[in-house]
Amino acid sequence: MFFSTSTVFIRRFSKVGVSWSVLGLGLIGMTLSSTLLYGQSAAQNEHEANNPPRPILFPSDMPAPYFPADAEIARAAEERFGQAPGYMDPDDQKRILAPQEAGIDEIDDLDNTPFGSLMPAAGGLSKNIWQPSSIEIIEGLLEVLKLPNKSPAMGAISQKLLLSFASMPSGKVIGSSQKEIQEIVSQTKKADGVLLKRFINLRLNKLTERGNLIDLVRFLQNLPENILEPKQQNAETLLLGGDLIGACQMSQRANPQAKINNQMTGEDFVNMKNVDPEMNEADIFWLKMYGFCRALEEDNMAAQTALSILGDQNINDYVFFDLLSQLMGSPDEREPFVSIGITALDPLNYIILNLLDQPINADLIETSPPLLISALVLNGNLSAESRLQAAVKSYLLGGVSSETLGKVYDVQEFTENEFSQAVRLAQFDDRPLADALLYQAASRQKLDEDKISILMEVWNRAALNNDMGRKAVLYKNILSSITPTSRLMNSAHHITRGLLLAGDVQRAVQWYDFARRGAAGGDAEATRALINIWPLITIAINGSDIPWTNDILNLWWNGQALLAPDNRNDKATLFYAIAEAFGNHVPEDRWMDLVRESPVKKMRSIPLGVWREIIRAVGENKPAQSIILSLIAMGADGPGSLNANGISTVIRLLRSFGLEQDARQVAIEALAANDF
C-alpha cells in the first residue's frame, strides 16, 4: 500500500531511540504494506439440526400491520425464516454466498473490488453480502446502528460485517447464470469511484466508533493508495497504529499548501510558502505533518520552515511548536517537556510525546477520543493506575480486547492482605481497581473452590451492570482451568454458563457430561445441576449429541416448579421460542400450558419499523442489510432485553444467512440474561 521505508527515516528512528512498543501499537506486528486477497467462501455450518425451524411469521395472506404491502416479499421472508439451519439452496449459492461456483473459477475474474482485512478462513463473511443493497439504505442503517454495546456476540457479528473482504453495495442482485454474474461484475467495476470511497468511509466511520485501533489500522493498511483517501482521520489513525511511514507518505500526497513531493528540499519549500496565504484546518494539519515528517528525516530546515509558515498564519499552537522543536534537537540536549498548555491530546502531539519519551498526564485520558485512548492503554510511559483508567474506558467503548484488559489488570499492585480479602473488599468497592483485584486474586488461587468463590462475586457485579457476557470472556482461562468434581457440583451450572458465554463449548460439554453421569447414579445435586445446564447446552450444541425428547423437556418443566408461576411461564416462553428457532420441536401441550398465562416480565419487542424492514430485507435476499437490522433490533442492551418473539426472529434471520454459531451465541446471551 505505502512506499518503501527510506534509509534516512530508519536512521532517524535509531537516533531518537524509540522502540515500536513505545509508539503505541507497534506490538501489533503489522506490516507496512499488504497484498489484497480476494477471498470468497460461503458461510457454512459444521452440523445441521434434525428438523428445520418452524416458521414464526403469520401466513402472508393474512392481514398484519407489520407486513410490507408486497405479498411476494412477505412469502419469501416466511419461507426463508422457515428453512433448515444454515439453509442454502442452489440459487442462493450462485447468487449471493458462493458465486464462484456458478462457473467462474478465478475470484479475480468475478470482481476485483473487495476491500477488508478479515478473510473467510478467519471467520469473514461472503464477499457479496452487501451487493444487493443500495448504498443509501446501508448508509441510513449504519447511522442508526450504535456501536459498541455489552454483547460479545453482537460485537463479533458487527466486526465480521465491517472487516470482511466485501464488494460495495450496488443495489443489484447477482443472478444465477454466468452471464448475469458477469453483467453485474462489469457494472460494479465501472462504479463511480466516489461511491466506492463512500462505502469505504462508511465502514471506517463505524470502526472508529467501535474504538478498536487494531482492527481499524489493519483495515486501512489493506486499502490501496488510490482508495485510501488522504484525510486527517486516516493519517491520525496510522500515526496511533505505529505506521508513521504510512502517515508521512499520505501527507506527501495530501498537502494542498505546497504540493510537496519526495524530492523537494527545505529550500524549495521556502519558495512555495506564499502560494496560498489562506489556510483552512486541513491545510494546517498537513503542514504540521510535513514539519513532523521532515524532522524525523533530519531535514530540520524544512521542519523549521513549516513552523515559520504556521507562525505567519497566526497559528499559535505553542504545544506543537515546542514539541517539534524538541524533536529537532539532539536527544542528549533535550529537557523535560512542560505540558501546562495541553488541555486535550491530539494524535500528532501524542506521538511526538511518545517519541520524546515524555509522560502523559492522566487527566487527559477522560478528554481523549476513543482511538487515542486505545493507544494510551499500550503506552509504557503511563503509570499502572493511568493505564487501568485508559483500559477500562477503552474496554467499555469497545476498543481494547478482554485479553488486553486482563494484562492491564495484572500490572496493578496489591498486598497479600488485599488478595486474601479480595471478595470482602470488592463487596464495598465498585471501582475498576476492585475488578483488577478480583481478577488477580482469582488467577493466583490454587484451589478450584477458591476460584469459584471469587467468580461468584464477579458474576454478582456483572449482573448488576448487565455485563456477564464480557466478564465471561475476560475470565475464560480461569473458568477453563476448573476441573469438574463432585464437591463442585453445586457450582456446575454457573461454571458451565460462564464457559458457554466465553465460547468454550468443549469445556462446557465436559461439565454437562459430568453432571449427567452423576444424575444417572442418583445424585440429587447432580440432577439439579443437569436440569439447569441442559437448556443452555442444548442450544449451544449444533447437532444430535445432546438429546431433545418430550421426557427431558417435561423433566426441565417440572424442575421449574419451585419458581413463582409467573417466572416459570416467562422462562418457558423464552426457552421454547429459542429452542424452536433452532429446529427443536416443543409439543403443543407444552405451549398450551402457556396460552392460559400472560407474560409478566417486561421485555422489549422489535420496533414496528425495524420489523417491517427485516421482513422486506430477508424477502429480497439482502444479507448485510438484514444482519444490520438484526443488530439494530437487539439494541444497546443486547439480546437479553428482547422478548421471545424478537429473539426468535433474530436467531432465525442469522441462521438463514449462515451465521449459525453467531446465532447460538446470541441465544446463550439471551438465556443467561434471563436467569438460565
Would you mind describing this structure in some detail?
The structure is a single chain. By secondary structure, the protein is mainly α. Among the domains are: about 70-215 and about 605-670, no CATH class; about 225-360, no CATH class. It has 35 helices and no strands. It has helices at about 5-15, 70-80, 90-95, 105-110, 135-145, 150-165, 180-190, 195-210, 215-220, 230-240, 245-255, 265-270, 280-295, 300-310, 320-330, 345-355, 370-375, 385-395, 400-410, 415-420, 420-425, 430-445, 450-465, 470-475, 475-480, 490-500, 505-520, 525-540, 550-560, 565-580, 590-595, 610-620, 625-635, 645-655, 660-670. Helix 2 crosses helix 32, helix 10 (about 230-240) runs parallel beside helix 16 and helix 17 crosses helix 18. The chain is flat and about 85 Å long.
Indicate the topology.
Blueprint: H1 7-16, H2 71-81, H3 90-97, H4 107-110, H5 135-144, H6 152-163, H7 178-189, H8 193-210, H9 213-221, H10 232-240, H11 244-254, H12 266-272, H13 281-296, H14 300-312, H15 318-328, H16 347-355, H17 370-377, H18 384-397, H19 402-410, H20 416-420, H21 422-426, H22 432-444, H23 448-464, H24 468-474, H25 476-480, H26 492-502, H27 505-520, H28 524-540, H29 550-559, H30 565-581, H31 588-595, H32 608-619, H33 623-634, H34 644-656, H35 660-672
Helix pairs in contact: 2-32, 5-33, 6-33, 6-35, 9-10, 10-11, 10-16, 11-13, 12-14, 13-14, 13-15, 14-15, 15-16, 17-18, 18-19, 19-22, 19-24, 22-23, 24-26, 26-27, 26-28, 27-28, 30-34, 32-33, 33-34, 34-35
